[in-house]
Amino acid sequence: MENVLPPAEELRLIDRELVQLDARRAQLMHRRAWVLTALRAAGAGPAPVPARSPGAAAETSPPSAQNILLTLGGILLTIAAVAFTLVSWGHMGIGGRAVVLGAVSMTALGAPLLLLRRRLVSTAESVAALGLVLTVLDAYALKRAVLPGTDAVAYTAVAAGVLAAAWAAYGRAVGRLRLPLPGAVVAGQLPLPLWALSAGGGPEVTAWATLATAGLDVAIALVARRTAVRALAVTGAVVTGGWSLLTGGWLSVSAGSPAASAEPALLLLAAAAVSLGAAWRAPAAAAATATVGGVATVAATGGVLRTLVPADWAVPAYLLCAAALLGAVRVRAPRGVLTGLAAASGLVQLAAALWAAPVVLLALTGPAATLEDVWGGPPVQDVVLPGAVTAPVVLASVAVVLWAAPRLVPAAPLPRPAAECAALALTWSAVVAGPAALSLPLGPTLAVQLAATAAALVLAVRPSLLAALLPAAGVAAWSPPSPTGPPAGEGHAPDRASDDTAGPGGGTGSPDGATGGAPATGRPDSPSRAAVDPVRAVAGTALVCALPSAASAALLGLATRPATFSALGVLVALGVAAATAGRGLVRIVAACAAVVGTTGLVTATAAAAGLPGHRIGLTLLAVPAAAALLGARLGRHPVALPVEATGAAVVPIAVALAVPHPPTLALVLALAGVVAAGTAVRAERRPLAGYAAAVLFVAASWVRLAASGVAVPEAYTLPVTVPALAVGLLRRRRDPSASSWVAYGPGLAATLVPSLLAAWGDPDWPRPLLLGLAALGVTLAGARLRLRAPLVLGGLTVALVALHELAPYVVQVVDALPRWLPPALAGLLLLAVGATYEQRLRDARRLRETLGRMR
C-alpha cells in the first residue's frame, strides 16, 4: 500500500485526529458524571453498568426472564391445585372443600386487579391463568361432590356455558388481561354441540347445534377488537361451520325423497345465510366466505331438485342451480360477495365438467380396441359409465354458461378469452361424447368424430368466425368495452379481447382471417388487452381439440375397410385444406397431420391389395419421397422442414416391415438412401441428409451381401472405404489444413479393423498376407506423404499381423528355452532401458514431435 501523503504530513494528521477524539471522550465523561449526579439526587439513579463490547449480549433479557419465571410459577401452582383436587379432596368435608376452593379461586381472580394497579402485568396474567384453571377445577369438584348422578355430557355442556359467560364477563371487567376473553371463546365452542349429544339427537340436531355455534363465532369475530379473540372465533367458525356443511351435504345427497331432503336443505341454506352475512360485513374475506355460501346454496336447492328427477339427471339438476346462482350475481352487492358467488357457481360447473370427463375419455380411447382386430368389425364397449346419457348435456350447459358469464356477470372471475377457450373445448367435448352416450353405431359415430374434427380445424384456421356463429346469444365480435362503462352499481369487468390482435399466423386478426385487419376502435391497447390474444387463444384451443378427435376417427375407421378409406380420405383432405388456408402453427400441424394420414392411406391401400408386410414397407417409401419433393418445391418455407421430417419418420416403419425379408430390406434401405441423397442436393439439407444417405447406402449393401450369403468382411468394408477415401482426398484438396484423421481415418479404419479381426481368427495365410501388404503400403504412403493417420493405422496393422504370424513360432521357442531364461531376459531389458532412460525419453520426444508435424 502506497501513502498518498508524505509520512511526516500523514503523522501530523493522525495526531490531530487523536487529540480530537480525546477531547470528545473527556466531554462525554464529564456529561456522564453530571447525569449520574442528577439521577442520584432524584432517587432513581441506577447503578452504573460496566461497558461491554458491542458483540457481547446478555443470555436473556429482563422481560423474557420474568415471563419464563412467571410461567413456571403458574404451571407449578396449577399442578398443585390439580393434585389437591384429585388427591386431597376426599380428606375434607363438604364445607371445607367449598371454603378452600372458593377462597383460592376468588383470591386468584382478584389478585390480578391489585397487580395491575402496581403495573405488574405479566404477574397478573399468570395469576389470572391460574384463576381460570381453578374455575374449571371448581366445576369438576362440584360435579363430584354435589351432583354425582348428573349426566356427564349434559353437565359439561352447562359448565362450559357458565364458564364461557363468566370468563367473558371477567375479561370485559378487567380489560387489560389478555387470557380470559380468548378462553371464553374456546369454552363457548362446547355447550351447544355437547347439549345436542346429551339430548340424543341424530346428526341433524348436532349439525344445527354446530351451525348455531358457528353463527356465534361469526358474530364474535365481527365485533371483537383483539386479534387473538378474532382469530380464535374465525377458527371456531370454520371448524363448527365446516362440520355443519359436511353433515348437511351428506344428508342431502343420501336423501331419497323431497320430504327427506327438506331438513338438510334448510340446514345448508342457514349455513349459506351465515356465510353470506359474514361476507357482507367483512370485506377482507368476502370472496372466500361468499364462495362457501354459494356452494351451500347450490347444494341445498340442487339436493331437493335431485329427488324430483331421475338418477341420471342429478348432476344437471345441480348445474341448473349453479347457473341460476350465477344469474343472481347481477344484484347490487359488495364486489367481494359477487366475486365469491360467481366463484361458487364456477366450482360447481367445474365439478360437473369433471364428472362428465370420463365419458369423453371413453369416446376418444375406445376406438383403440380396433387395433386388436383391424377390419374385424366395430369395437364392443364393455364399460358402462353411470350417468353417461346426460354427460353431453352437462358439458354443453357448462359451455353455454362460460360463454355468457363474462358478458353478463359483472364479477365473473374468469377472463373473457379464457372463458371462451374453455367453452369451445367443452362444446367439442360434448359433441365427441354424444355418440358414446347414445351408443350410436359405427357410421354415425365416425361421422360425428369427423365433423368435430372439421369444425375444430375451421375454427383453428379462421378463429374470428366464432363470434359470427353466435349472433342470437348477443355475442358480438371481439371488441373493447363501451367508453361510457357499465351502469352505476354493476361494475362490469372490462373485456380482454379485441379485433386488433395477432392472428394464428402472426398477423393481425381480421374478420376473414387474413392479415391487415384494422382495430375496432382508435383507442390505444390497454395492458389487459395486450396481455391476452383471443384470436390465437381460440385458434390454439381449436387445434388442440382437432388432434384427439382426428386420431380417434382414424382408429375408429380401422373397424371396417370402407370406414378406413373414408376416415383417412376425409382426414387427409381436411389436413391439406387447413395447411393451405391456415397460418403459423396451425399450418405446420395440419401439414404434418396430412402426411400421417397419407401414410395410413398408402398402408391401407397396400393391405387391401393383399401385399405381404415387406412389400407394404416398400410401398411406404412413396411417402418420404413425396414429402422430399414437396419440401424441395416449398424451399425455405416454414412448413417444408416439418413435412420432410414427418415423411422421414415413415422410413423406420418401412424398414421394420421389411426386416423379415432381407432382399426387400436391402431394397428399402437403398431407396431410402436415394431419397436422402436427393434431399442432400439442397444446400440447407446437405449436412444431415448427406450422412443419412451414406449410412443407408452402406446398410443396404451390407444387407444385400448378407442375403446373398457373402461372409468375407472385405466385401462389406471395401465399398465403404473407397468412397470414403475419395471424399477425404477431395476434402484435403479443398482444405489443406484438414487433419488426416478427419480425411482418411474413417475410411482406412472401416477396412483395416474388420479385416484385422478376421485375420486373427483365420487359420489360412492369404488374408494375413494380403492385409499385411496392404497395411505396409498404407504405412509407406503415410511416411512418404507425412500423414499421421495412414502411418499410425497402417503401422499398427502391420505390427499386429506380424505378431499374429510369428506367435506360433515364438510359443515354440519359449517352450524350448529354460524356464528361467525369459525372466532373465526381461530383467536385462529393464536394466538396459533404465540405463539409457534419458536417451529413450529423448527418442520418444523426437517421435512425438515428428508425428506432431504430420497431419
The low-pLDDT segments are 49-70, 471-531
Radius of gyration over alpha carbons?
46 Å
Helix/strand structural class:
mainly alpha
Compute the number of strand runs.
0
Instruction: Please report which band the strand proportion falls in: under 5%, 5-15%, 15-25%, 25-35%, 35-45% or over 45%.
Output: under 5%
What does this structure look like?
The protein is mainly alpha-helical and 855 residues long. Helices cover 74% and strands 0% of the residues. The chain has helices at residues 7-42, 62-86, 94-117, 121-145, 152-173, 180-187, 191-198, 203-223, 227-254, 258-281, 286-306, 314-327, 335-365, 391-408, 416-438, 442-461, 465-468, 527-531, 534-557, 561-581, 584-608, 613-620, 622-634, 640-648, 650-658, 662-680, 686-707, 714-734, 740-743, 745-760, 766-785, 788-816, 821-835, 837-853. Helix 2 (62-86) runs parallel beside helix 4, helix 19 (534-557) packs antiparallel against helix 20 (561-581) and helix 21 runs parallel beside helix 24 (640-648). The model is unreliable at 49-70 and 471-531 (pLDDT under 50).
Q: What's a concise summary of this model?
A:
The chain is mainly alpha-helical. The protein has helices spanning 7-42, 62-86, 94-117, 121-145, 152-173, 180-187, 191-198, 203-223, 227-254, 258-281, 286-306, 314-327, 335-365, 391-408, 416-438, 442-461, 465-468, 527-531, 534-557, 561-581, 584-608, 613-620, 622-634, 640-648, 650-658, 662-680, 686-707, 714-734, 740-743, 745-760, 766-785, 788-816, 821-835, 837-853.
